[in-house]
């Protein structure tokens, strides 16, 4: 009887791992695809950020303008090329959710930039790099868990 339980337990673990592999592959594919889309968005973000600063704008408004432009590009590229599993059937609500999470990312972006530049006195380039990484991870995790994984959620409207 102990042998039977042991075999059942081992079989359950193996079948659990087998079921987990496609999800892990999908997660990695989404992360890589979103990373490429985010790299394009970050390129636009940084071009506007540093270009506006070069033109005499303060770094915080420059960061907001660059971030919003990058977020728009990230949305367009993500829904076109990355996410196969879309939870929200209503594309207007999906876009709203994407940009709402993006606004939370913008707040995080501004707080991190301010803290790193004015608080820790890092260079703008170093602060922008650290901020971009933190906001990327936040946005990916939030958008994937809320908008782009699992079964579709019917939305009124």
| Number of contiguous helices | 4
Radius of gyration: 20 Å
The sequence of SSEs as H and E is HHHH
**Overall tally of domains:** 1
Report how far apart the termini are.
Answer: 56 Å
Low-confidence stretches: none
Q: How much of the sequence is in beta strands?
A: under 5%
Percent of residues in helices comes to: over 70%
Which class best fits the helix and strand makeup?
Answer: mainly alpha
Main beta sheet strand tally, sense and closure:
none
Spatial shape = elongated
Kindly state the mean pLDDT as a whole number? Answer: 83
Q: How many strands?
A: 0
Care to describe what's here?
This protein has 157 residues and is an all-alpha fold. It has one domain. Helices cover 82% and strands 0% of the residues. The protein has 4 helices and no strands. It has helices at 2-54, 59-82, 91-119, 124-146. The longest helix has 53 residues, at 2-54.
């Amino acid at each position: 009887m102990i042998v039977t339980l042991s075999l059942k337990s081992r079989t359950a673990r193996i079948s659990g791992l087998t079921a987990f592999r496609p999800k892990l592959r999908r997660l990695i594919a989404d992360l890589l695809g979103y990373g490429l889309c985010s790299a394009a968005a970050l390129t636009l973000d940084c071009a506007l950020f540093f270009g506006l600063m070069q033109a005499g704008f303060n770094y915080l408004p420059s960061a907001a303008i660059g971030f919003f432009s990058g977020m728009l590009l990230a949305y367009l590229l993500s829904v076109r090329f990355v996410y196969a599993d879309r939870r929200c059937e209503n594309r207007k609500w999906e876009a709203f959710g994407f940009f709402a999470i993006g606004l939370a990312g913008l707040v995080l972006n501004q707080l991190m930039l301010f803290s790193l530049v004015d608080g820790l006195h890092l260079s703008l380039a170093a602060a922008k790099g650290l901020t971009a990484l933190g906001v990327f991870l936040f946005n990916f995790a939030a958008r994937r868990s809320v908008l782009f994984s699992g079964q579709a959620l019917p939305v009124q409207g």
